[in-house]
Amino acid sequence: MHNLEIEFKQLLNKKQYNQMLQDFSDYNQSIYYQTNYYLTHPNLDSRRISLRVREKGDQFELTLKMPQKVGLMETNIDITAEQFDRIKEGEFLENEIFATLRYLGVDELATDLYLTTRRSDMHIPEGLLSLDANEYLGRTDYEVELEVEDYEKGLEFFVTLMKKYGIDYQANCDSKIKRLKTQAAKIKK
After folding, report:
1. Rounded CA gap, 126 and 147, in Å?
2. What does the alpha-carbon distance between residue 167 and residue 146 come to, in Å, rounded to a whole number?
3. How open is the CA angle 185-189-176, to the nearest 5 degrees?
4. Beta strand pairing status for 50-56 and 127-136?
5. How far apart are CA 106 and CA 41, in angstroms?
6. From its phi and psi, is residue 48 left (phi > 0), alpha (psi between -120 and 50) or beta?
7. Among 13, 166, 154, 139, which Cα is nearest to 71's?
8. What does the pLDDT read at residue 1?
9. What angle do CA 36, 37, 43 make, to 5 degrees?
10. Over 80: is that where the pLDDT of 54 sits?
């Protein structure tokens, strides 16, 4: 499945995160845990392309995100736990995502980076608002994401929302994979 992802993201401190959870408690919150396993290769990094397997409950989804003029083009394919085990063992599956990887010159993937998120999703009039508490490599960070269909309207709302919490939004924070890689590099030093 293909889908154009337009989202605004901002890191929060714990107090801002908790306040937002409280402020949006009137919305029906869907709260769940998910783990993102990132699959990396220098050819993907140089093109700012991300590849992950998301485990949510007993479901697994392979996702390729490729930058566009506005947003990211996401390709999502449901896979089984057994297929994920085969990917971790270095096998390339026969599907659209792995065909794209072969085209990009990716012949093997590193699979050692993962991050677990406690996510609260709320459907608000402006789009899907998600509040994340992310745990990785001994660190916890907090993030708000707003996924929208209209970039301009979404940006206007997000800037206003962030001001309410004392945040001057300028641009999206680093992606989860980038923060995870930065933390991994710090640990290796």
Report:
1. 9
2. 15
3. 15
4. unpaired
5. 7
6. left
7. 154
8. 83
9. 120
10. yes
Hey, which residues does 3 pair with through a beta bridge? 74
Q: What is the pLDDT of residue 188?
A: 82
The type of residue at 161 is L
- Secondary structure element (H or E) that encloses residue 169, with its range: none
Cα(30)–Cα(130) distance, integer angstroms: 9
Query: Exposed, middle or buried, 74 (CB in 10 Å: 0-12/13-18/19+)?
Result: middle
Give pLDDT tens digits for 142-172.
Answer: 999 999 999 999 999 999 999 999 999 999 9
Structure tokens of 130? 């998600």
Helix, strand, coil: what percent of the chain each, to 5?
A: 30, 45, 25
Torsion of CA 141, 41, 65, 97, to 10 degrees: -140
- For 104, the token pair is 């990009």
What does the DSSP 8-state code read for residue 79? E
Highest mean pLDDT among 67-71, 110-114, 131-135: 131-135
